[in-house]
Amino acid sequence: MSIRIIGTGSYVPERVLTNQDLEKMVDTTDEWITSRTGIQERHIAGEGVFTSDLSAEAAKRALEMAGITADQLDLISVATVTPDTTFPSTACVLQRKIGAVNAACYDLVAACTGLIYSLEVAYSLLKASSGKYRYALVLGADKLSSIVDWTDRSTCILFGDGSSAVVLKNDPDDHSPDFVVASKIGANGNYTDLLKLPAGGSAMPASHATVDNRLHYIHMAGKEVFKLAVNGMADSCKYVMNVSGVRPEEIAWVIPHQANKRIISAAAQRLNLPLERVYVNIEHIGNTSAASVGICLDELNRAGKLKTGDYILTTAFGGGLTWGAMLMRWT
To answer: Which residue among 257, 260, 296, 301 is the active-site one?
Structure first.
């Protein structure tokens, strides 16, 4: 039995919001944003576009590459912090939109680490199913523009909308190695207040006061998150390299969560990895949360830059705080 990736897909909305556009909205400059984040532009979905719609676009592209139809899917996992509704799950809405009538569906919340968490869970379910589950669709998708305070210059400059999808196949007749070489996910709930959406849940239900106090938007302590992000990504990457025995020089590509170019550079330095092997696209899409790692993977795949046998190291961190790394072997 072998579990491997047979398709990838990604999607960002057509509308582009540049740093120059943001200069007209808040007290900021293109130079300030670029020098501190590396971001030049981000993509923003329209009012009538939901996370499930973003997911559907990425899903269709991944399924087309995989050469299977939606009704062949056994599992759909959507990692998101911006579900269409609290319930039903966005995965269930997506199931209807793409016609995946035979798939079990669930959402997963791990913020920007979402896709790595979701891949870990889906891979484990396929592995443990003894062939019951053959195809899984794993997505990271977020419409962060719906929870961004466009008057807060510390956060509105960072985020964009997007989605990514990966199709996994569990093949009982294939005895080649699985795509997962080693993985590590973790969390520390002591830091829940550093990056969160305060209102809208059972702890703080929506009210006139929560709306007036702008508590339905992202709140982030940027400086504190920066340090923890570098440590979380670097430590989880070191773990998977140590347990797998794969050396830094053997890794073809590192795909980090695209949160901030300075965080990416600092983590790469901690790992002694040259920046030319670290994939970065943050300048064009910003921070797309759970979609980030998968968008990068799909761009590399479609550009023909992934070769059979390549080691690909993915890593991310997010609200929770959560973090993780997955070392893949491309097949």
So the answer is: 257
Q: Specify whether 287 is catalytic.
A: yes
From the list 19, 170, 287, 301, the catalytic residue is 287
pTM more than 0.85: yes
- Report whether 26 contacts 153 (CB < 8 A): yes
**166-215: per-residue pLDDT in tens?**
999 999 988 899 999 999 999 999 999 999 999 999 999 999 999 999 99
DSSP letter at 244 equals: H
Say whether 219 is catalytic: no
**Is 257 designated active site?**
yes
Q: Is the peptide bond before 194 cis (omega within 30 degrees of 0)?
A: no
List, as own/partner pairs, every contact residues 69-73 make where C-beta atoms lie below 8 angstroms and the sequence separation is at least 24, other chains included: 69/99, 70/98, 70/99, 70/100, 70/101, 70/103, 71/99, 71/100, 71/101, 71/102, 72/102, 72/134, 72/135, 73/100, 73/102, 73/103, 73/135, 73/136, 73/137
Q: Which of the residues 92, 105, 112, 296 is marked catalytic?
A: 112
pLDDT tens readout for residues 57-98? 999 999 999 999 999 999 999 999 999 999 999 999 999 999
